[in-house]
TrEMBL record:
Species annotation: Frateuria aurantia (strain ATCC 33424 / DSM 6220 / KCTC 2777 / LMG 1558 / NBRC 3245 / NCIMB 13370)
Reactions listed under catalytic activity: 4-(phosphooxy)-L-threonine + 2-oxoglutarate = (R)-3-hydroxy-2-oxo-4-phosphooxybutanoate + L-glutamate; O-phospho-L-serine + 2-oxoglutarate = 3-phosphooxypyruvate + L-glutamate
PANTHER family with a match to the protein in the record: PHOSPHOSERINE AMINOTRANSFERASE (PTHR43247)
Localization, UniProt: Cytoplasm
Name of this protein: Phosphoserine aminotransferase
Free-text cofactor note: Binds 1 pyridoxal phosphate per subunit.
Oligomer and partners: Homodimer.
Gene encoding the protein: serC
HAMAP family: SerC_aminotrans_5
EC number of this enzyme: 2.6.1.52
Length: 361
């Protein structure tokens, strides 16, 4: 078996133990004589597994009882649209914070369903810092305030949620959910595509305050209505059973690591090591983000001479360091160091970077 150190932004590295468990379970899950993928979602074994996964997530994030947990499909992008469909009546307005590519996308996908307004933005600063959110500037009648907790491309992360006054705060946590404890009660909705810190793509985990389920939103099919999915335990139609199962394994893995406080400590250590290597390279490598806003999950960096980019990528790949090419929107490199990327991977990357800078600096 040869596995690389995987710095993919998503779909991304999963914990080795989770993959090994899935491999062991693949043909005969739980003594059922069948794969979990081959079983009815209405059957007792699957329902029990699904309920346990929810219970484990509730424990990890200390989710209060007045929040529902949904296991949905469509990716975070679909929920950029589905959230205004559910929370905003025709003609309603909603406030958005802009911090990078994914918050822009959230605004554009919401556009057909709600009147969006930008209340704070760091666009003029090239998305290199977090904007100040002034609660006095919020629309008191907005249906909600939306922000992206971690900008996967720009490498910017909120350490604390922005203030939202009395508006329900909606957070896209696709790329940093379960990387540290979160105050769920500061939020109306927390949602995340699974393919970074949870499991495979094709699954969205949503934590939603139950009073928001009572909103009428706009006319839409039942399958799009969060209230209906909550009433049906996310099984209004066939859920992503494989994704749900893998998410459950990941939740157990995080619990076994010591929960989110332990996970956060590991993420501080890993990201600290990498930022130190960048900042200490004498300008050979650069990360442009305000240190207070630097992401612990996605670390974009450029080389002082872009002519070396191709060589860096070629040699890093040869050294078993995979998927370091940066997003075209910011260029250069990006190392995504989600929960499942071990310290040893970051150590290998930092050692490679130092050697590369020595050779070509
Ligand atoms: N939001 C964030 C923060 C993301 O990183 C991504 C995907 N990289 C998305 C939304 C879109 O997710 P999906 O492709 O699952 O729709």
């Amino acid at each position: 078996m040869s596995r690389v150190w995987n710095f993919s932004a998503g779909p991304a590295a999963l914990p080795l133990e989770v993959l090994q468990q899935a491999q062991a379970d693949l043909l005969d899950w739980n003594g059922s004589g069948a794969s979990v993928m081959e079983l009815s979602h209405r059957g007792k074994p699957f329902m029990a597994m699904a309920a346990q996964a929810e219970a484990d997530l509730r424990e990890l994030l200390a989710i209060p009882a007045h929040y529902a947990v949904l296991f949905l499909q469509g990716g975070a992008t679909q929920h950029f649209a589905q959230i205004p469909m559910n929370l905003a009546a025709p003609g309603d307005r909603a406030d958005y914070v802009l911090t990078g590519h994914w918050s822009e996308k959230a605004v554009s996908e919401a556009g057909p369903y709600v009147q969006t307004r930008i209340v704070a933005s760091s666009k003029e600063q090239g998305y290199r810092c977090l904007p100040l959110v002034d609660t006095a500037a919020l629309d008191p009648d907005a249906a909600y305030l939306h922000y992206v907790a971690n900008e996967t491309i720009h490498g910017i992360e909120w350490r604390q949620p922005p203030p939202s006054g009395h508006l329900p705060l909606v957070a896209d946590m696709s790329s940093n959910i379960l990387s540290a404890p979160v105050d769920i009660e500061r939020h109306g909705i927390v949602y995340a595509g699974a393919q970074k810190n949870i499991g495979p793509s094709g699954l969205v985990v949503m934590i939603i305050r139950r009073d928001l389920l009572a909103r009428e939103g706009r006319p839409m099919a039942n399958v799009l209505r969060y209230r209906e999915q909550a009433a049906a335990d996310s099984m209004l139609n066939t859920p992503n059973t494989w994704g749900w199962y893998l998410a459950g394994l990941t939740f157990k893995w995080i619990l076994a690591q010591g929960g989110l406080a332990a996970i956060e400590a590991g993420n501080i250590r890993k990201s600290g090591l990498l930022y130190q290597a960048i900042d200490g390279s004498g300008g050979f490598y650069r990360n442009p983000v305000d240190p207070a806003a630097r992401s612990r999950m996605n670390v974009p960096f450029t080389l002082h001479d872009p002519a070396l980019d191709a060589l860096f990528l070629e040699q890093s790949a040869a050294a078993g360091l995979m998927a370091l090419k940066g997003h075209k929107a910011v260029g250069g490199m990006r190392a995504s160091i989600y929960n499942a990327v071990p310290l040893a991977a970051v150590e290998a990357l930092v050692a490679f970077m130092a050697e590369f800078a020595r050779r070509y600096g």
